[in-house]
Amino acid sequence: MIASATALTRFRMGETVTKTGWYLCVPCGYLQEFSAGNTFTTCEVCRAGTDDGPEGYTDKENEFWEFIQVTGSKT
Q: Where does the pLDDT of residue 33 fall: very low under 50, low under 70, confident under 90, or very high at 90 and above?
């Protein structure tokens, strides 16, 4: 089960990943796996966090990665 919308936390490009798992790019819906200790990057699909990103998500300070599921977990 996914947490309610009010309990979800978003992360921005450059922040350190604290939990290995799957993260959703809010603007485009792309799922990307990130490993703990690495940093969040731009979305390789919609380029969120760059000048080429979707409207409202062109600044690297925008929080657009949302934790979905721990790697290997079954829903």
A: very high
β-strand 21-25 against 31-34: which pairing, if any?
antiparallel
**Residue-level pLDDT at 71:** 74
pLDDT: is 5 or 64 the higher one?
64
Number of domains in the chain: 1
Give whole-number Cα distances, 37 to 5, 20, 71, in Å.
25, 8, 15
Beta-strand pair 63-70/10-12: antiparallel
CB 40 within 8 A of CB 48: no
Residue 1 lies in a domain: no
Range of the domain at 35: 8-69
The one-letter amino acid code at 33 reads E
